[in-house]
Specification:
Elements (H helix, E strand, L loop, with lengths): L32 E4 L5 H9 L3 E2 L8 E3 L4 E4 L8 H8 L4 E4 L3 H10 L12 H12 L3 E8 L2 E11 L2 E9 L4 H15 L4 E5 L3 H5 L3 E3 L1 H11 L5
Parallel strand pairs: 8-9
Antiparallel strand pairs: 1-3, 2-3, 4-9, 4-10, 5-6, 6-7, 7-8
Length: about 230
Amino acid sequence: MFSFKPGPDPDFPYLDETVNFNFSDPKEWDGDIVAIGGNLSPGMLLSAYEQGIFPWYNPEDPLIWQSPDPRCVIFPEKLHISSSMQKIFKNNVYEITFDKDFFGVMTGCKEIFRPNQGGTWLSDYIIESYMEIFKMGWAHSAESWQDGELVGGCYGVLMGKYFVGESMFSKRKNASKAAFLSFAKMLFEKGIEVVDCQVPTDHLQSLGGEPMTRNDFLKLLKKLKVSRL
């Protein structure tokens, strides 16, 4: 069924936005990688997010689907805006916008240098796929601007009361953090109940992220009734 050649399986069918793809039963998952193969057509990509799964793979790999254990999440009451970040917002160091330049944010995430990493995991195919669901209204971005230049941002997928943060980039100090915190605050004010940050890191925990077992995370998704259909 699946190809183990690099990237998406050329023989796997295109699934449109209305199609649901069922991944394997979580009881069968052993480790963070839960599936290999397929493609990033809207139906498969959105189905994955509904089931607590997201694509994460290197250009030389086949398409790998992951659901990390533990997961990192931020709840509304836990979002942390430090005093230094409050000063940045008060002084209007950055102009923050939403969904103004989704492509620019994804390109920035692809091109930014990341210490201790061999390269970026974002390919042109991944960008094209997320651009497609952005045009459908599922993917969103937040941008930080300075003197008319896009200097930071983040993007992710929004489904009901659940937002999945995918990646961020910064060309100026705290530019990505300013975009993310502004976006998270806006989402929480609109009734979003959780921001999924995927993999726990010290940086994310400094913003209010906390680890959650995969089992509890999947229960949370069911409670939130995450579904597009």
